[in-house]
Amino acid sequence: MIRRVIETFHIIGRGLVVVVDGTSNLPVGRGLPVEIETPRGQRFTTMAFREWPRREAPLEDEHDAYLLEGLRRDDVPVGSILRF
Hints:
Elements: E1 2-11, E2 15-20, E3 31-37, E4 43-51, E5 65-68, E6 81-83
Antiparallel strand pairs: 1-2, 1-6, 2-5, 3-4, 3-6, 4-5
């Protein structure tokens, strides 16, 4: 499965979270190996943990979010590709 990063943010005490285009049926909270390719062509791998969005009602345009282990916002710019 391939997803493009559309937003990034940092949660203090947890790390980098990326929001991707679309949704999936991947398990929530379990480590998933992921290859990341930045817009400049850099490639590396890490573990991703799918997060549950918390909201009162589902949105029409849903997106998955993943916590990426050991990375910073500069490491995974918007436009990067995640390959699960």
